[in-house]
Amino acid sequence: MKPVKVGLLGLGTVGTGVVRIVEGHQEDLQSQVGSPIVIEKILVQNKAKSRSISIDSSKLTEDPWEIISNPDIDVIVEVMGGIGSTKEYIMEALSRGKHVVTANKDLMALHGPEILAKAQEHGCDVYYEASVAGGIPIIRTLVEGFSSDRITKIMGIVNGTTNYILSKMSLEGASYDDVLKEAQELGYAESDPTSDVEGLDAARKMTILSTLGFRAKVALDDVSVQGMSKVTKDDILYAKRLGYEVKLLGIAERQDDQFSISVQPTMVKKSHPIASVNGVYNAVYVYGEAVGETMFYGPGAGELPTATSIVSDLVAVVKNLKLGVNGKQSVLTYKEKKLKSDEQISSKYFLLLHVDDRAGVLAQITQIFAEYEVSLESVLQQPNPNNPDAEIIVITHDANKAAIQKVLQKFESLDVIRKVKSVYRVEG
Amino acid sequence: MKPVKVGLLGLGTVGTGVVRIVEGHQEDLQSQVGSPIVIEKILVQNKAKSRSISIDSSKLTEDPWEIISNPDIDVIVEVMGGIGSTKEYIMEALSRGKHVVTANKDLMALHGPEILAKAQEHGCDVYYEASVAGGIPIIRTLVEGFSSDRITKIMGIVNGTTNYILSKMSLEGASYDDVLKEAQELGYAESDPTSDVEGLDAARKMTILSTLGFRAKVALDDVSVQGMSKVTKDDILYAKRLGYEVKLLGIAERQDDQFSISVQPTMVKKSHPIASVNGVYNAVYVYGEAVGETMFYGPGAGELPTATSIVSDLVAVVKNLKLGVNGKQSVLTYKEKKLKSDEQISSKYFLLLHVDDRAGVLAQITQIFAEYEVSLESVLQQPNPNNPDAEIIVITHDANKAAIQKVLQKFESLDVIRKVKSVYRVEG
């Protein structure tokens, strides 16, 4: 019954949650792993700062090496975020035989392979369930639950901030700027929201999910990224009228062992289970060749949901410790990474065009689609209530990305088209 | 690279799926576990029967002992169903040191503790992910994903047949009898549908889920069961009008370490994520003290979805074999089982009453609710279009089950009430 000693790097929102759960659920944790789990030392920026939980001040330190080089500490829980020195601390801890649990998506998306290799070398565990979709145990699901299946599609609402904004725009007909401001006041969006609204945060999470789902070393650069800051309330109105919701989706697809991974605002048919995921909630839809359609839904962030994932990882590490199998269950990325070209990436598209309101315009436009072999599912022309021009709405059948890009290029030189107002990928 | 040898008990729908996945995904499976997985022998009822897959006939046997007493076989995969001799085979296999993967909910719900104890005794694994909710890895989620949390509520649509029937009744306004007949023709319902429609199948699955979620030895008898064969299309119409869907829900709740587990047709608010789970799909909603609301959605049955769960379990067993840790990771049920009395079980209720259409009736009825301290959220009285009497619809606030039963008893002796048409638990 020797206690397992944990060093906690960071005591912000999530770190506080970790302390709460380890202390509050201590009896349950002990019953499961067979020995006490003790948070031995906590790295903070300022020991003197007042905090929302009472912590023995002798446990706090401002010196990371008091934790990393402490031979009594078995496991490091990293919730300080960032990349530079955080990576250094983790690499050092691993080389000293300490196991690591981290919630750091940036680090795992950018340096995952290097960190996992170091862990292998030293027989250490690295668990990172909390790095994607907060409280949803999606990494376990991909790695263990679907180990026997071939996953062909992962679609995720993996950023709560942008889902809050888009849901609110959809439910209330509000504008992006107004909802963003409100989200910032509520603490759902950062004062600089770039990483969320431009899709970078989602891209990091999709890097992690597609690496695990496809068993191939996907890199952040492999993800094609488009943010949602240009989505207008009119776009959402059109989408709803046609039976769609606009969601910022991460989409990873596999076909014949070739992959494509992207993040973009997407029109999702209302009947699709992911279309009704609203607010700050996250959801990951997984399609497997054998299992078919599945979806996993839950809180994407927050003190306790994220801490739940971290402490569940901690339980796994401690169980491995008892069984003497740390570092022996890492996920192998045995598949060669082959990315699809734009010619091979296929999906449906929605286009909203503002055009001159005169004879023959629709013929010219449909002619260009035909030229690039893009066939159309539905076309609607109507007067634009706010302008003297007309609106044309097109939903294509499955078309390759390169062809759509060529169509859009051609549209630029077509003087009857005043503006290509919106272009969205369509799912469901 | 010595191959791991599997004995398959049963070659019906799911057994065929297991063969397909093990053969079709062999390369992926080998990459993960480091050695071939071979299906060595298959128990069938009739070797001569023609089958939808081609199998070397020397692998088939009609004698279970050719598998159970075969020293070369490492793992038994049981997909024959049933309890009597199936249990005997599994117990024998365990006592000979063979690990077991099973999809048998009846067996695990009734004899789980005995089987798991035998496995412990002989250092064997028993995995049974496929026994609940087919392709959804819900057992892993409860046991590992939420190991650090205290789960307080599990609500499941865990029977696809009844969800198909209720969804169809809701979408098409059809009657129970008509949809049941159609479901039988489509193969979604058995010719004797009792076990599904009377909630017994769901009760077995809730026994398994609540044992794992609450870490206590819940028995099938602890589940209070009410079927859905009496749900009428009118009930569903009323529910929809009030913003609810009727679902056959398994509900397991924990409060102050006291449990209640039940299966019953329930009115679920449309905004609740589980309300929009339709057709043969299953979903399990899990509420944890720390994580909050989560939901896991996917196919509840079918050849390949169920086989995915089985072969993923097989992968776990083989990984344990390689690490030498079989039988060392069983879930401990360390919590004492304390069941709530009817006085302690609380929920909202919907009641539809047919009453005499005369003065003072509503006063008499509301007086009885008041007498048993059941407070009302909403009350609607309206003429009954088909009868000379009137209808009263009541939705209560949270009320204890015993009080509602007393109210209903009192209603029986009240001559202004012609009939208590429907009573439903309400969620969301």
TrEMBL record, chains A, B:
Xref: CDD domains: ACT_HSDH-Hom
Pathway: Amino-acid biosynthesis; L-methionine biosynthesis via de novo pathway; L-homoserine from L-aspartate: step 3/3; Amino-acid biosynthesis; L-threonine biosynthesis; L-threonine from L-aspartate: step 3/5
BP GO terms, sorted: methionine biosynthetic process; threonine biosynthetic process
Domain of life: Bacteria
The reaction(s) this protein catalyses: L-homoserine + NADP(+) = L-aspartate 4-semialdehyde + NADPH + H(+)
PROSITE patterns membership: ACT (PS51671), HOMOSER_DHGENASE (PS01042)
This enzyme's EC code(s): 1.1.1.3
Gene3D superfamilies in UniProt: 3.30.70.260, Dihydrodipicolinate Reductase, domain 2, NAD(P)-binding Rossmann-like Domain
Listed InterPro entries: ACT-like_dom_sf (IPR045865), ACT_dom (IPR002912), Asp/hSer_DH_NAD-bd (IPR005106), HDH (IPR016204), HDH_cat (IPR001342), HDH_CS (IPR019811), NAD(P)-bd_dom_sf (IPR036291)
Hydrolase as UniProt keyword: no
Family annotation (Pfam families): ACT, Homoserine_dh, NAD_binding_3
GO molecular function: homoserine dehydrogenase activity; metal ion binding; NADP binding
Keywords, in A-Z order: Amino-acid biosynthesis, Metal-binding, Methionine biosynthesis, NAD, NADP, Oxidoreductase, Sodium, Threonine biosynthesis
Binding-site residues, NADP(+): L9, G10, L11, G12, T13, V14, G15, T16
Keyword NAD: yes
Family: Belongs to the homoserine dehydrogenase family.
Name under which the protein is recorded: Homoserine dehydrogenase
